[in-house]
Amino acid sequence: MHFTWVACEPNCRGWIGAVGIVTGDTPKKFDDFARGRDLGGATIVLDSNGGSVNDAIALGRRWRAIGLRTTVGSSIEAHTASGESTRVAPQAWCESTCVYLLLSGKVRYVLEKAHVRVHQIWMGDRTEDAKASTYTARDMMIVERDIGPARGIHI
Q1: Sequence-ordered list of residues with C-beta below 8 angstroms from that of 25, at least 6 positions apart, any chain
Q2: Contact, 126 vs 133, CB < 8 A?
Q3: Buried b / exposed e across 15-26, counting CB within 10 Å, b at 16+?
Q4: Is 112 left (phi over 0), alpha (psi -120 to 50) or beta?
């Protein structure tokens, strides 16, 4: 996942664009992005296909602790007669583990035409045809670890 600060002066504070797949590097990338910034109460605009369950939950906990707001959308620059402007458009997806990030917001908002998609958890390397794949006992242990009550989802 990639993070950018989107400025929309003078009429708004701006927001954080969060685009891409959540990986093991994503929490550190966010920490690097956040370093030296006062993000309390800021909004994160999500456009993501999901990714790592545990990393999304860890990142969501950080966002909740900071007091971030979340929404689904994409940052669009518009050229108007009065100059450049930036807005959040609903042409975006929050799929799979992205939903954990969306739910971590102190305030959550989904634009009417934005897309939120939830599905059963499966092994990432078998997403093309998860039902036709085979699963070892180790595979099932990994899935259970990711969703099991010992880890909980307290975001």
Answers
A1: none
A2: yes
A3: bbbbeebbeeeb
A4: alpha
Asked if residue 79 has pLDDT above 50, the reply is yes
Domains of the chain and CATH, by start = 2-119 (3.90.226.10)
Of 28, 26, 72, 29, whose CA–CA distance to 52 is shortest? 26
Prediction pTM value: 0.77
Structure tokens given for 132: 């036709």
**13-37 pLDDT tens trace:** 889 999 999 999 999 999 999 999 9
pLDDT digits (tens, 9 = 90+) for 117-142: 887 666 667 667 766 777 788 877 77
Nearest to 155 by CA among 68, 44, 64: 64
